[in-house]
Specification:
By secondary structure, the protein is α+β, with helices and mostly antiparallel strands. Helix content is about 30%, strand content about 35%.
């Protein structure tokens, strides 16, 4: 089940959020981020945030927000996180499909991912399977904890044609 995230949900989800950020493999968030700053970033500075629950456990989450302002506010941006224990079970795919439907309902005509780390091949293949294309490469844009400087991709999908 996917539903809007509450502050209590975020507190439960915090260990997953923290672990993903501390790993420094996919998100360009400060690894020293605290729970309140993370909550503001994920839930308050966004248009909405959602959780994927199963058997009363929060296994994943996403946020949706405008990618730009004014004349560029018709394109949205999303971020997704899935608990390590739940990876490989189709949750990211369900979250992305839900986010696209949400984006359309909110009036967005396209979705753009601003920085998909090039070494995150599982995510890249999933996003491509769901219709996203790589429209640009940012050289050495990400300091990967294990691999050093790696490229990031900008990915895009039109939602309304």
């Amino acid at each position: 089940m996917i539903r809007e995230m509450t502050k209590a949900d975020f507190e439960i989800f915090w260990p997953t959020f923290r672990d993903i950020v501390v790993a420094q493999e996919s998100y360009a968030f400060d690894p020293q981020i605290n729970i309140e700053t993370a909550y503001q970033l994920w839930c308050k500075q966004t248009r909405a945030s959602f959780v994927f629950t199963q058997n009363d456990q929060i296994l994943g989450s996403y946020y949706i927000k405008s990618n730009g302002m004014g004349p560029s506010d018709h394109i949205c941006n999303c971020g997704y996180m899935v608990s390590e224990l739940a990876r490989g079970k189709g949750i990211a795919s369900k979250l992305c499909e839900h986010s696209q439907a949400t984006a359309k309902a909110l009036g967005y005509s396209a979705m753009q991912f601003n920085s998909v780390v090039s070494t995150n091949q599982i995510a890249i293949k999933l996003w491509q399977k769901l219709g996203f294309t790589i429209i640009g490469t940012i050289p050495e844009a990400y300091r990967h904890a294990q691999l050093g400087l790696v490229d990031s991709y900008i990915m895009h999908k039109a939602l309304i044609r």
